[in-house]
Amino acid sequence: MITKPKGTYDLLGKDARIYNYLSNVIDNYMDNYNYDLIRTPIFEASELFHRSVGETTDIVTKETYDFKDRGDRDITLRPEGTAGVVRSVIENKLYGNRNDVLKYYYLGTMYRYERPQSGRNREFTQFGVEAFNSDDPMLDAEVISVGYNLLQELDIPDITVKLNTLGDLESRKNYTEALVKYLKPHINELCEDCQRRLETNPLRILDCKYDRSLEKGRAILDKAPRINDYLTKESADRFKQLQKNLTLLDVDFEIDPNIVRGLDYYDHNVWEYVTKEGVTLGGGGRYNNLVETLGGPHLPAVGFAMGLERIILELNKVIEERFIEKQLDVYIMSVSEEEKLTALKLAQEFRLNNLRTEINTANLGLKSQFKIADGLKAKFLIILNNEDLKKGLINVKDNVTKEETKVDEKDILDWLMINI
Ligand code: AMP
Fold first, then answer.
1. CATH code for 330-419?
2. Counting C-beta atoms within 10 Å of the first and last residue's C-beta, which end of the chain has fewer, N or C?
């Protein structure tokens, strides 16, 4: 038997229905915020991710799916959505009008070679938002609230936005120096990954899940210097303004100095959407220099991404009945050739009028058809028979009350519409 690759999954039944529901909700919801859908390729030139996500990040060093295509090009399956959107903004010169704030959202599969566990797959789906061409904390507040309010709309309870700032380049440089100075004497007490990070990406040590799970590591990290004490006045003011905006929008946030995010391109505000059980559903930040790094003009930007699989896991806890049981409106039973032709024709008419309809396409006997109709929880059964058909009549049975009625063939659609 051929099985699915490790870290992938088949989306079946209720979960597949929730996925569809989610993507519809997102489309309608983003329209109200005036964001446009953008679809970029699932694979891109490897260099795009090396230059944006960062050479030293876990994603690029350990997690990308890289391959040579048949033309000997270095290709990578996208591990995240921002880089492709930025590439597209630059390549298509979408920044043509200098005053426009460009607002995009995407929904698509991402690929990371990670250790699979619940809510962590190798192929997963992200919904993300990217807004370009404004450096105003008002835009940060809008983007943060897009994600927050969506989770509220979906009735996922008790979401907190964990918020931090990485400051501008100067703040970040001063802070990183102080952090390295503090951590150096403790380096042997941290995990191997963090020992390496001290050289390559020291801020990432702050959110090392492994070290935080150990008492010793937690004690070291809890006493580390805080970014707040190293912010330039401009960065500190900007962070205060954002908090004011979020309070105005009733976003439930808390400052968490350990949120640093895994990607290199962030500056200023970074945040995560976290459930009360501590599950991170998404995260984002400002990235004012990425467009330039990738060869475009200076275009400050801010965005976030959320994992759909994790949202589906949450929705499974609160989801309404309609996702759990799919119910059929009508099952049309047929045995003879004439009955089958009538069934085929009627089913098309019903389906085109939004009635969920099933027929016997497997040449089954009546008994089996009754069983299947019950399995599909059909509300009504149409039991065709040659004699009634000759008189232009259709035999309908209410599958709950078991009451049977003969209806004129030409009136059957109207009758069903009224009675369902
Ligand atoms: P990141 O791009 O790492 O900040 O991830 C943003 C969100 O995408 C996370 O909060 C998760 O909800 C989701 N996500 C990231 N990696 C995975 C994965 N391997 N499997 C499933 N969801 C993921």
1. 3.40.50.800
2. N
Q: Which CATH class is domain 13-163+253-318?
A: alpha beta
Structure tokens at 215: 């008492």
Work out the mean pLDDT of the chain and round it to a whole number: 93
Mean pLDDT of 115-124: 94
pLDDT digits (tens, 9 = 90+) for 332-349: 999 999 999 999 999 999
What is the tens place of the pLDDT at every residue in 371-390?
999 999 999 999 999 999 99
Whole-number Å distance, alpha carbon 307 to ligand 1 midpoint, is: 5
Compute the Cα dihedral for 67, 71, 74, 80 and give only its sign.
negative
In 3-state terms, what secondary structure has residue 132? strand
The 3-state DSSP class for residue 220 equals helix
Residue with CA at minimum distance from ligand 1 atom 10: 282
Specify the residue for token string 């369902």.
420
119 C-alpha to center of ligand 1: Å? 8
Q: How far is the CA of 306 from the centre of ligand 1 (A)?
A: 7
Nearest to 284 by CA among 80, 20, 23, 77: 80
DSSP assignment, residue 62? I
Testing ligand 1's pocket by substitution, the residue of 110, 156, 209, 263 carrying the most ligand atoms inside 8 A of its CB is 110
Cα gap 414→38, rounded to integer Å: 42
Quick check: 244 and 214 in contact, CB under 8 A?
no
Task: Tell me the C-alpha distance between 216 and 329, whole Å.
Answer: 61
Cβ-in-10-Å burial (0-12, 13-18, 19+) of 128 comes to: buried
Q: What angle do CA 10, 16, 21 make, to 5 degrees?
A: 150
Locate the ligand 1 atom nearest the alpha carbon of residue 272 and give its number.
Answer: 10
CB atoms within 10 A of CB 17: 16
Query: Which of 58, 65, 126, 265 should be mutated for ligand 1, with most atoms under 8 A from CB?
Result: 126
Q: Which amino acid belongs to residue 262?
A: G
In sequence order, the 6+-apart residues with CB closer than 8 A to the CB of 263 are 52, 53, 54, 57, 59, 80, 82
Give the span between the Cα atoms of 396 and 409, in whole angstroms: 11
Query: Measured between alpha carbons, how far is 213 from 335 in angstroms, rounded to an integer?
Result: 65
Residue spans of the domains in the chain: they are: 13-163+253-318, 169-231, 330-419
DSSP state of 120: B
How far, in Å, from the CA of 261 to the mean position of ligand 1? 11
